[in-house]
# Entry
Amino acid sequence: MSILSRFRGRSAGGDQAQVDPHQWRLPSSYSTSSKPGTRETVIPNPRIFRNAFVPNEPTAARIGADTSLVYPDVSHAAVHLALLESFQRLRLSAASRLDDVEVVEDQPPPAFSEDEKRDVLREQQQQQHRPPTSTKLPEPERWDLLIRLAITRFTAWWMNMDRILYHATAFTHHAGTHAGVQLTKDYLPPLDVLLVWYAFMLDEESYTTACSYQETPTARIGDLCFPWPAIRDALDLDSLAYRITRPAENLFATLTSQSADILTYLEGPPAYVECPELPVDIDLFGQVKRCERFMDEAHRLLWIRSPSLQGSLERAFLQYLERQLSPTPISSVATAAAAAQDDFPLPFGVELVWKTHRLYPRLYRLFRQEIVPAPTPTPTDTKSPRISTAAEWLGGSDVPERSSRQPSSSKEYDECYCWTCERIRDDIPTFSYTAATQSRSSSSSSSSRATAAASPLSPLSTLSPTQIRSIQDDLGFHLAVERARARHSPLPTRPPTAAEKAAERLEAKKQAEVGRLPGLNEYLVTMPNGKKKIKRSKHTNMVYMAMV
# Structure
């Protein structure tokens, strides 16, 4: 056993099952070796994004026999998390790169009496010989300024959506009988415009109304899914930076006469820009601001860098479907809460999946029709329906007071979803840690290391020392990677874990079962013994011409 392994064993030794997991002493020493054969650290694992495709079939909205959905998938939610981090980066860049923006003091109000007019005229004559006074734009207002500019840029882009779809249709391959047009990476808008589109699409009623004003020969705008595959291709998984392609930049500049980079646009704005208006009256600024809470929560939890990303998303999907298939689905409760102007808290993972689902409006609408069929009106029913409140939908116990945005007293909303708790749930799905658990832990021990509910029946007692060391090693390694990112240092490395090796074996087994499909200028032949073999054409040009 190596010295490093013995050190980790001692650091994870003792009865760790009786210690509050948030007080664990995690390993922190990892090598940054770049020797040949050393596995490069890539977090998150790119495999989690591979199923982020856009289904065209309306049947994708249906729930399968295994109680699962085609859309959204874990991959869509993972791209969603990465995009939220990109939005957060844009927000931080607004605070740093707009520090030179100044606000000129307002001019005096117009005067109406003769005496006031003379005083104002005298003041204006004196001001002509003085330089204009200005102040720095406060940091919180810099982000608001960027949002308002982004809304103007989004409106110009949105009003040209028909031209974008015409162009995309000409270069789209239609497979099968169902033709659908979705935006690829060469049609993506800049990040600030994407943020406004994101917030706009989450307002289902206004978005559906706006989409009804524009039609194209091949697809309605309302049939577009949020372009998850294109966003995945535009994201740098290491830095989570969003970078669109050069063709996408040129297309945006051609359509809007503006630079794709909003901060570059601010440095040299054009002398004159038309300001089109959306066909619906909607407070886009308020919609974007309402997304800030969710962006902050995603950044605080940072699931996209978590050692239990896959497990966290899978559990969130199960909770989401369980809620949607209950007698009071989320959509119905949300509608009632909005009508009563009540808060509608959701666990972070459930809210993530719900928002991801709503970002494909057509499929989400079909899904809602399946789980909550529209009531059939009867001639005798002449009374107007009564709108129930959110408290009535939830039994009156799970809705917080309107005056508070804090989570309700319900255990589900008070649950901890940090890296530590989520990693434990990979091994113990029923593990629970709430504020009440924390208070019991701190009050039951006078030592500096708070002990969790020390009981033989504690959930952590079911874990073996090897499992606890594995959890601690995963947490320590991922925290070390984040510290290295913050310092812009080389990322630490470690040998493959048992879980990673098992995942690789399963991946290799699936790949062997599926086999490799023929590529360009290749064809499949069946040998006399029944085996299939892929061969490459010797006359590439002739085959290509025949295919064309």
In short: The longest strand covers residues 522-526. The chain has a mean pLDDT of 75. The radius of gyration is 28 Å. The chain has four domains: 58-100+137-372, 102-136, 467-515, 519-547.
